[in-house]
Amino acid sequence: MECDDNIQCFPTCGNSWTLSPTAGKINAIAWKRNSPLSIEEVQLEPPKAGEVRIKMTSSAICGSDNHILKGSLPGNFPLIPGHEGAGIVESTGEGVSSVKPGDKVLTLVVPQCRECNSCLAPKGNFCEKQDILPSSGLMLDGTSRFTCKGQEIYQAFRTSTFAEYTVVPEIAVAKIDDAAPMDKVCLLSCGMPAGYGAAVHSAKVTPGSTCVVFGLGGIGSAVVMACKASGASRIIGVDINEEKFPRARVLGVTDCLNPWKLKEPVQQVVVEMTGFGVDFAFEAIGLVETVVYCCLESCHLSYGICQIIGLAPSNSQLSLEALMVVSGRTLKGVCLGGYKTRDCIPQLVTDYLQNKINLDPLITHQLPFDQLHKAFKLYHAGKR
Ligand code: NAD
Ligand code: ZN
């Protein structure tokens, strides 16, 4: 399943869900790996201590949802997928102090507990309480809040936004500006910061630099926007789906390459185009081959930075000649743009409200939640 961008889904049901536990009618469950999503009624428990129950307003589809559904990222099933979401706090568990009912919030795949070694370090953002590597699909106490037909349902990355209501840990909730349009800012829950931050915050693209972006889906497009905003002089965009090229050009890509149509390997073409290789190369697909052979080899031998954003299948191995990096290249990875999520993501929402960053070009379709199947069909078809 090759897929695409940020197709948003909105719950259509306007019921008031104040009962406890909550019975949510529109929830997408994947009963097993690689199976179609099934729309089910579920029971959702109230939030426990340190947890927040959220009425979901908008969600978007990210490449990582596809990975988890097809099993290339480990996850337990049955599962409610979706992690890129915006919603309104419905109730809070004991001890929750950073949000209250009625607050607009984003769900966070990378939490920020503000206590662990990663959170306390000034660099990096990969909080030890994350549930990505590996993904248990359970809350911090080892249980799930969802049941369906008497069965426990796992939560994707401890979020599960393809649901009318969800429960997430407080450390995975970012309170955002009341004025934020939820159908837009849900992209700031994952895709936009993942791509934008990879370039501006982690790799720190410099003015006048040369860049190549492998994969021009939602994440790659956010990388392109960031390279452009950072003043890159040349941005090469690479994708096997040429339908991605028109938007990429509008966002700032100066040269579009389809590797399937080139006579030479794409990395060789990139090196020839730039003389010595690019300053910054970004992998936004999630394939081992593109990381090593395309992305790393496109970088300047002496100082090029190869930034991995795409999530390659779990257990896949990178195999590279040791001398590939000894010349000075950097191979690095980043999650959620390296942003300490609860500190930084609300500011990105404010930046959007102040027209400092744009999200609109990343939105390809807007559909009601009960058309989630159609949304995934469009996604797999690479449509925009
Ligand atoms: P996407 O499916 O929308 O985009 C992937 C793009 O890659 C598509 O345009 C596709 O046509 C293109 N592609 C596929 N194979 C290719 C090839 N061989 N050569 C060139 N292009 C190819 O996915 P997305 O939502 O943009 O996510 C991209 C990757 O980033 C995924 O692996 C996802 O899991 C990962 N991701 C990482 C983070 C992070 O924080 N590190 C966050 C979100 C998503
Ligand atoms: Zn932490």
TrEMBL record:
Cofactor: Zn(2+)
SUPFAM superfamilies: GroES-like, NAD(P)-binding Rossmann-fold domains
Tagged with keyword Disulfide bond: no
Molecular function per GO: all-trans-retinol dehydrogenase (NAD+) activity; zinc ion binding
Entry-linked InterPro entries: ADH-like_C, ADH-like_N, ADH_Zn_CS, GroES-like_sf, NAD(P)-bd_dom_sf
GO CC term (a single one): cytosol
Residue ranges occupied by any Alcohol dehydrogenase-like C-terminal domain in the UniProt entry: 218-347
Keywords: Metal-binding, NAD, Oxidoreductase, Zinc
Coiled coil: none
A single BP term in Gene Ontology: retinol metabolic process
Family, as annotated: Belongs to the zinc-containing alcohol dehydrogenase family.
PANTHER family xref list: ALCOHOL DEHYDROGENASE, ALCOHOL DEHYDROGENASE 6A (CLASS V)
Protein name per Swiss-Prot or TrEMBL: Enoyl reductase (ER) domain-containing protein
Species assigned in the record: Equus asinus
Underlying gene: LOC106827760
